[in-house]
Amino acid sequence: MYLQPAFAEDRLEVRHGLMRAFPLATLILADAGGVTADLIPFMLYADEGDSGLGVLRAHVARANPLWRKLETATSCLVVFQGPESYISPSWYETKRTTHKVVPTWNYAMVQARGSGRVVDDPFWLRRLLDRMTAFHESGMPQPWELDDAPIDFMAATMKAIVGIEIPIDSLVGKWKVSQNRGAADQRGVVAGLGDDPMAQLVAERLKPE
Fold first, then answer.
1. Does the N-terminal or the C-terminal CB of the chain have fewer CB atoms within 10 Å?
2. Distance from CA of residue 134 to its chain's centroid?
3. Are 125 and 132 in contact (CB under 8 A)?
4. Could you tell me the residue range of the domain that residue 71 belongs to?
5. How many domains does the chain fold into?
6. What pTM was estimated for this model as a whole?
7. What count of Cα atoms within 13 Å lies in the side-chain half-sphere of residue 172?
8. Which of 164, 193, 138, 166 lies closest to 67, judged by CA?
9. Quick one: pLDDT at residue 31?
10. Is residue 193, in this structure, part of any structural domain at all?
11. CATH no. for residue 13?
């Protein structure tokens, strides 16, 4: 990934925050058979792993050939995409002074790399599903739990999935959120974006007057 120093996000808690807020990530695998890219909801275990960067866990359908590819792939790339937005040059103060401006795109993303493994263990899977469900149901008026489903139905469902685990070896964050613009241009972007989530990311990095 091309990463200019101005756009690098080195704070681990910020990178982890994006991964939790946008858990549906793209898992990219490459082996002798080619390259695949699949959207998978991941669970971050921030306090685990030897690198200090955390461990990613997820599950896929047993019928999905992805998990067999994972067994032969030398490494995994998991891309977490956060807020993104088109940035109009008409929002820049510079447009009114020099007109030397062009459109661009702001975005925040995290790329995690590591060697993955397949986990075909019903107890491991149950713990993962319980944790993922509790996390995503926490804001619901009446949170759903796995035990709400019939036992035989859940038993069949568990047999139809396989777990995957990726200890993170490398974690790169890129926040391209107008840090390369002057303060007046940044304020114009914030105003132009309005209620878009990107406005907050730009506002957090405003240069002093």
1. C
2. 19
3. no
4. 5-86+103-179
5. 1
6. 0.93
7. 16
8. 164
9. 83
10. no
11. 2.30.110.10
Q: Show contacts of 42-45: CB within 8 Å, 24+ apart.
A: 42/78, 42/80, 43/128, 43/131, 43/132, 43/135, 44/16, 44/19, 44/20
Tokens of 49: 């792993």
Does any domain span residue 94?
no
Mapped onto helix, strand or coil, the DSSP state of residue 111 is strand
Q: Would 20 be classed as within a structural domain?
A: yes
The answer to whether 175 touches 15, Cβ cutoff 8 Å, is no
Say which amino acid occupies 126. Answer: R
126: left (phi over 0), alpha (psi -120 to 50) or beta: alpha
Give domain status of residue 72, yes or no: yes
The values of phi and psi at residue 142, to 5°, are: -130, 85
- Measuring CA to CA, which residue among 8, 3, 161, 168 is closest to residue 76? 168
